[in-house]
Write a structure and sequence with these properties.
single chain, alpha/beta, Rossmann fold, 9 strands
Length: about 230
């Protein structure tokens, strides 16, 4: 099985999603989208697409011109019927590629938050009724046409959505491992400002032992749900 991973920075990979995919014997083909020499495989050359997070905003094409090509590629893969998973910025890019708005959320969410899983009906992924997950975002997305909301939080209505049978976009970060989170805490302490919705480094670090393993299992469940049946 061939899986394409679109990565926006050297440090923000697909975390536990990659662990789970390797457990399924997948070959991971990484595309560093900001590299001028980046080459996208054709949709037919992959069995699944995973789009990582990153510090960019989905509409910043003037600053990051490669975003336009990336969104066109995401749309082409979706149109091909292959499974697609978007993580934070990745979920925003799926929405933008499908014509939905991406905008500033009323407040940031950085830290561990309790989300509510929603019953979107038969044929959709089911989140737990409540679950703790890592967040690190300022923006939010509107739901693409035809998508259903899968999870929400008091500060951000659209935390997860599904389009059809095999496209899931997330605003939250169940993929972040302890290593991923501690990297951000070490290298981006300036993000942890004393604002509503932003937890302290100590709070976030303490939450790793309490919540990371369960969040990563949720990521594994989502990957399993999206994988082609023969995997």
């Amino acid at each position: 099985m061939q899986v394409t991973i679109l990565q926006h920075t050297p440090y923000e990979d697909a975390g536990y999603a990659e662990v789970r995919l390797r457990q399924h014997q997948a070959t991971l083909n990484r595309v560093m989208v900001a590299d001028p020499a980046a080459v996208y495989p054709t949709p037919e050359q992959s069995d699944m697409l995973v789009i990582c997070g990153g510090p960019q905003s989905a509409g910043e094409e003037d600053q990051y011109p490669w975003l336009k090509e990336e969104k066109a590629y995401i749309r082409a893969v979706i149109d091909s019927g292959r499974p697609v998973l978007g993580l934070c910025l990745g979920g925003q890019l799926i929405a933008a590629a499908l014509g939905a708005a991406v905008s500033r959320n009323p407040q940031p969410e950085i830290g561990w938050f309790t989300l509510q899983g929603l019953d979107a009906g038969e044929g959709t992924f089911r989140f737990p009724p409540q679950f703790e997950v890592m967040e690190w975002h300022y923006d939010t997305f509107s739901l693409p046409a035809g998508a259903v909301r899968l999870a929400s939080s008091p500060a951000c209505a659209n935390q997860a959505y599904q389009l059809g049978e095999r496209v899931i976009g997330l605003q939250c970060h169940p993929e972040m491992t302890a290593e991923n989170i501690r990297y951000l805490l070490t290298h981006f302490p300036q993000e942890l400002k004393p604002l509503t919705g932003i937890q302290s480094a100590a709070e976030i670090d303490a939450g790793i032992a309490r919540h990371a393993a369960q969040a990563n299992q949720l990521m594994a469940d989502i990957v399993d749900y999206l994988l082609p049946a023969e995997s």
